[in-house]
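Lab notebook page, bench 4
Experiment: in silico fold of construct C2
Operator: M.H.
Input chain length: 227 residues
Purpose: comparison with the prior construct
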Amino acid sequence: MDKIKDKIKKLIALSESANPHEASSALSKAITLMQKYQLSQTDINKTDLLTVTQDHYQHNMSGQDGALISGIAATHGVFMFKVPANRDTGKRAQVILTGLKGDIESTQYFIEIVARQINAQVSHWRRLNNASVANGNDYKWGLVMGFVKRFKEEMKVISTEVGSGMVAVDTRFSEAEQFARVSFKLQSGKTSARSNDHRANGTQDSDKISSARGVHGALSALRLEKF
């Protein structure tokens, strides 16, 4: 059965080919095999879930950074949770991502690009408005929430039906979350942010943040900070 699953996975990969005929043919063959052997989408992908752990770029992870990483991860079908910094050992806060390998790699790519832009935009806004750190943090909340909302809508267009391995992004996320919660014995948690004018300004300016361009129109390649 493992050989059949491997064959289906290869066909699924081909179904994302730029060649329409090749993609259509591969998709049809994959569906036929799945029906013949009564294999569900979960059966094909559940053994491929990975967990990747990475230190955050700052010692402590802010709620804004956590919301940004979680939001981008979810759009790729990846479940994210954070481990707080340990003051006694000096260990940094950690980001833990659970999902399919390709989804995790794509998540990491977008997080690095967007996190740098958001931090640069906050610094830019504070200089222009002579704003305090606290006000900048509120503004950052707005940037994060505004960007994540828009990014989710943009990603739906290309991932709702096919996504990775024909499994819809919501299904991939649900499976990754279940795997992580069982593996790490996680409890549900919720992060909230206060609403004020600075956050509203950030939400309004969130269209300045793009997953496809540099900071403030910079033409040179970004030296991306790690999340």
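Observations: The first strand starts at residue 50 and ends at 55. The mean pLDDT is 80.
Next step: discuss at group meeting.
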